[in-house]
Every structure is written in structure tokens, then in C-alpha cells.
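Q: what sequence does this backbone want?
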């Protein structure tokens, strides 16, 4: 009897939670998905690409992302975040690294193994991420107006999920080339495909 009653209560709570999620304005709906392929010439820069929605109205909670330094590299090579987010720069190498960005206007100094530094990205744009000690170290930090962005994998595929239904301008950042902006209409629970050509 007791078990049955508590199960009923759980179901009731589940129903209330579902209704809350379904109610507009109270919690963000699941939205739609944008996916596609980006054809990059030259192909070796395929992974240095971010697909993003240019402007999506909303207030986005600030998050913290991590960029590691491991094996004498920045990891990931391309990081996509939202304006106001913090990046935690870690060092998991046995040597000291420095973290600076000429366009980003920051230099977090030089720090040793198992230390870290943070930086808040207060403006949109794409910033090269460098280490003054190891000139071969390079990464990119893409800072979008909104969280609806995705990095592109080796095959040129990207996926942006949980996009609120609407019509948006969708654009591409690439380290060496450009692609024309496009218009995309996203519907609730649907997947829409948008492909791009990136050329010099
Ligand atoms: Cu370094």
C-alpha cells in the first residue's frame, strides 16, 4: 500500500514537471536541430570551423568551459562558447605554459603543471589562443552572441541542438576561408539541413 501511494506521488510530480516544461516561458522547449556538412578548401582546415546562429534573442546563463594544455597542445583545438562565459585554462604537461591572445587582449602569464588560470570572454569574436613559450601551440576560441554554435568534425559534419523555433541567419567562421551566410527556419522537434562551402 505504502509503495503504491509513493509511486502515485512520483507520477504526479512527473506530470507536474512535464507540464512545466511544456509551458512556454517557464522552461525552454527542446526546440529543433540544425545539422549539415561544411566543405572546406583546403580540406586540412576543416576542423578549424564553427557554424553558428548570428543573433538569437535571449538571456543565457554564463558557463565555464575548459581548455587544457596537454602533450604540448591546446585541447580542444577549437572551442565555441557564449559571450560572458569563462574559460578555465589548465596545464597537464610537465612544463610551464603561457596563455595569451593578441586579439583577445589578455595574457594570463606563465604557469606550471597542475595550475590553471581563468578568463571571462566579454566580447564576441574569434580569438587565437597562443603560448609565448611554445610558438607551435595554437587554438581558437569562438565567442558567440548565443550558445547556438557547433564546431565541425574531421568529416565536415556539425550539429546544433535545442534551437528555439524561428528563422535565423546561420554563418560560418573558418580559420582560412569564408562561406556565405544563409537563412534557416527551425521547427519544434524537427531537424533541418544546411550545408556550406568554405572558400578562400
Ligand atoms: Cu606552452
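A:
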Amino acid at each position: 500500500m505504502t509503495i503504491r501511494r509513493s509511486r502515485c506521488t512520483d507520477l504526479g510530480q512527473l506530470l507536474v514537471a512535464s507540464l512545466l516544461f511544456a509551458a512556454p516561458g517557464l522552461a525552454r522547449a527542446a526546440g529543433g536541430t540544425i545539422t549539415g556538412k561544411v566543405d572546406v578548401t583546403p580540406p586540412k582546415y576543416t576542423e578549424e570551423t564553427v557554424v553558428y546562429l548570428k543573433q538569437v534573442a535571449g538571456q543565457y546563463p554564463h558557463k565555464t568551459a575548459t581548455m587544457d594544455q596537454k602533450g604540448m597542445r591546446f585541447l580542444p583545438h577549437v572551442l565555441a562558447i557564449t559571450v560572458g562565459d569563462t574559460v578555465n585554462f589548465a596545464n597537464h604537461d610537465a612544463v610551464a605554459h603561457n596563455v595569451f591572445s593578441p586579439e583577445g587582449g589578455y595574457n594570463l602569464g606563465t604557469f606550471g603543471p597542475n595550475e590553471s588560470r581563468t578568463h571571462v570572454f566579454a566580447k564576441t569574436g574569434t580569438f587565437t589562443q597562443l603560448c609565448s613559450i611554445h610558438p607551435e601551440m595554437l587554438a581558437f576560441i569562438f565567442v558567440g552572441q548565443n550558445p547556438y554554435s557547433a564546431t565541425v568534425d574531421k568529416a565536415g559534419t556539425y550539429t546544433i541542438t535545442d534551437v528555439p523555433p524561428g528563422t535565423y541567419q546561420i554563418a560560418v567562421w573558418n580559420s582560412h576561408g569564408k562561406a556565405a551566410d544563409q537563412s534557416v527556419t527551425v521547427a519544434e522537434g524537427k531537424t533541418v539541413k544546411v550545408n556550406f562551402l568554405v572558400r578562400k
